[in-house]
Write a structure and sequence with these properties.
single chain, mainly alpha, elongated
Length: about 80
């Protein structure tokens, strides 16, 4: 019998958002795109990975093809897990 369930919205128990920012920053830097910590935390934090990459790519006049976005998501996930 399940006696308890712990559900953690980011920041409730552990604040992993700085790790997400670092992943986005590193992956986008490899594409020649820089994002600042302030920009991420003020404007991009509410997006899913797919939405964030799509928005940032469009803002930098890049075509957010499904293949490119999926690649960026995979690269960010790999960085997040290390």
């Amino acid at each position: 019998m399940i006696r308890a369930i712990i559900f953690d919205l980011d920041g409730t128990l552990v604040d992993t958002e700085p790790l997400h920012f670092q992943g986005f920053r590193e992956v986008l830097a490899a594409e020649g795109i820089e994002i600042s910590r302030a920009d991420y935390f003020q404007r991009l934090i509410g997006y899913t990975d797919r939405e964030c990459f799509t928005v940032v790519l469009r803002e930098h006049q890049r075509v957010p093809s499904g293949e490119l976005v999926e690649d960026l998501i995979a690269r960010k996930a790999a960085r997040y897990m290390t």
